[in-house]
Amino acid sequence: MGTVLRIYENALRRYPLLTSSIQTSMLMATGDIISQTVIEETSLKKVNLKRTAQFASVGLFLAGPALTTWYRVLAKTFGDKGHTSVVLKKVALDQFVFAPAFIGVFLTALGVVQGKDPQVTVAEVKKNYLDVVISNYKLWPWVQLGNFYLVPLRYQVLVVQLVAILWNTYLSWKTQASDVIKTKDVSTNLVEQ
Hints:
Layout: H1 2-14, H2 16-39, H3 49-78, H4 84-113, H5 118-150, H6 153-192
Helix pairs in contact: 1-2, 2-3, 2-6, 3-4, 3-6, 4-5, 5-6
């Protein structure tokens, strides 16, 4: 295990953006698989791998780079020390500036990678945005208080993404709920006919 940690630590030091993006992608894929198998009760053999890959790609190309860059901006602006006033400023900016904007971009990007019509994507963002933002405020301010106060900068994306396995499960379910309901309705109608 020590060798794996050394390799990870070296990769994080040498290639922070790439390493954080890959780990974010992997953890977002995990959240999607949990959503499909646990919440949506799909058997592991019937997991929609295309959907998982789409979710993972948003992690690789959007969430990982955005979070890594954002945390660096916060550290450069306020410093990397866990003083209470610094932590509170970081959490306030993170939750009242970054999070609302990022949630909108994230939901839009997910619709784009899923190949949805732009009008459908906009309608789904409008439908889901407020619920996701409210759910965000129930979890993330508390996580970020601990993250910014206790965790060194290079590990902050990892900590967020480990907690985000549950968050990504929720996002996957929330953004796919209408598709899952439609599929179940079609299956029920076919059985009844």
